[in-house]
Amino acid sequence: MSLDIVILAAGQGTRMRSALPKVLHPIAGKSMLGHVINTARQLKPQGIHVVIGHGAERVREQLAADDLNFVLQTEQLGTGHAVAQALPALTAERVLILYGDVPLIEIGTLERLLQRVSEQQLGLLTVNLNDPTGYGRIVRDGSGVVNAIVEHKDATAEQRLISEGNTGILAVPGKRLSDWLGRLSNSNAQGEYYLTDVIAMAVADGLVVATEQAADEMEVLGANDRIQLAQLERHYQYRAARCLMVQGVTLSDPARFDLRGEVTVGRDVTIDINVILEGCVIIEDGVQIGPNCVIKNSTLRTGAIIKANSHLEGAEVGEGADCGPFARLRPGSVLGAKAHVGNFVELKNATLGEGAKAGHLSYLGDAEIGARTNIGAGTITCNYDGANKFKTVLGEDVFIGSNSALVAPVTLGDRATTGAGSVITGDVPANTLAVGRAKQRNIEGWKRPVKIKK
Ligand code: UD1
Ligand code: CA
């Protein structure tokens, strides 16, 4: 059966106290609405219709994609009114309603719900709550058949005792929707057109309301303020951490791990505390990541070791290579197998060949460094003249003396050596020592200055 999905995202979110529209607030680095759209896509619907209102232009701008139909709800007159705005675009046999501020809803739950929909039946997702205050209540008759949803503000004292709450998520036969929505009235406590009134109409029309329960409360929780946003964030991270542990990753503390993107992992990976993985990260077998590392859009090959407080972006760390503590690998950094980068070394667009080393305090930018080459402490590639960038090429088994400045463009042949403190402005042939520093002078009998007594 064909499927249209409507995502309600027009509300203001006053309690966020933010200039940012509520649905654009991020969970794990991605907007709440972005998460919902992602989940919606996995159901392969014929259309995804996003109802926007508050901050509409920003929402549209940030999330625009070919497969999304944005529908403007100029005034927020209620959830029923919101869905009605999308009606002209709805043609599928089933319509699923989701919410831009309920980001953790899971695909499996929605699949179960959709299986319950037919021409004679609709699917309603409910949740049992310890404190159902504020939620619409699911009203069942003596034999457990659902009759209606009553909003908290419209409910009698007796109805408020019902602990089964409406999640708002429902799936209905598409054909019926325009009739039901057309008949909604706003004569209720909030003066709104309630989507929930559709339930009683369906029952009156002889349809069956089939309910499904969400696996846990967090899955259907909306974020109305930043406290709830943080709760959802933690739950998302707890889920992500669990998923990695199930795949064979050791996390020193699953409560101090953050994933803001996608990660693929091999076996026997260990991740110490306070590590943030962002974007697309690939971690192969046996990799060890020390505490306080940020790793973004990078690949860590088998057995690589990332020591504490390292920051990697757009980098590749080769098999058995290591970096840190306090290493910074910027985009285009590639460490070959068994290469070593130590503390306070920054790489950008630089390749270190197999077994090459830069142990301490260096900047290596726009550089190609051959196998087994050793970069002394304090070495700097002078790759930028204020307008253009130039390349430094070092052969294999090169030895760069400490505190050398390599003024690019410059090329050093295999087994070349530079004396410590050299400024290398010209190419150095293979097997050659280059010394580019002032010669030492010793001044005998030199008197140190003395302080003048007042
Ligand atoms: C709604 C349900 C309630 C349910 C609860 C779960 C109705 C009438 N009530 O109540 O039964 O228990 O959700 O959280 O549906 N929205 C629009 N346009 C509008 C109105 C709302 O896009 O005109 C969006 C909001 O941005 C929000 C969502 O719909 O994301 C829910 O609206 P809200 O007014 O918060 O509904 P609740 O009162 O929470
Ligand atoms: Ca709400």
Automatic annotation (TrEMBL):
Residues 227-247 are annotated as: Linker. It is an enzyme of class 2 (transferase). It catalyses: alpha-D-glucosamine 1-phosphate + acetyl-CoA = N-acetyl-alpha-D-glucosamine 1-phosphate + CoA + H(+); N-acetyl-alpha-D-glucosamine 1-phosphate + UTP + H(+) = UDP-N-acetyl-alpha-D-glucosamine + diphosphate. It comes from the Bacteria. The keyword Amino-acid biosynthesis does not apply. Signal peptide: none annotated. Residues 260-342 form the Mannose-1-phosphate guanyltransferase C-terminal domain. Acetyl-CoA binds at A377, N383, Y384, S402, A420, R437. It is found in: Cytoplasm. Catalyzes the last two sequential reactions in the de novo biosynthetic pathway for UDP-N-acetylglucosamine (UDP-GlcNAc). The C-terminal domain catalyzes the transfer of acetyl group from acetyl coenzyme A to glucosamine-1-phosphate (GlcN-1-P) to produce N-acetylglucosamine-1-phosphate (GlcNAc-1-P), which is converted into UDP-GlcNAc by the transfer of uridine 5-monophosphate (from uridine 5-triphosphate), a reaction catalyzed by the N-terminal domain. This is Bifunctional protein GlmU. It comes from Pseudomonas guineae. The lineage of its organism: Bacteria, Pseudomonadati, Pseudomonadota, Gammaproteobacteria, Pseudomonadales. The gene is glmU.
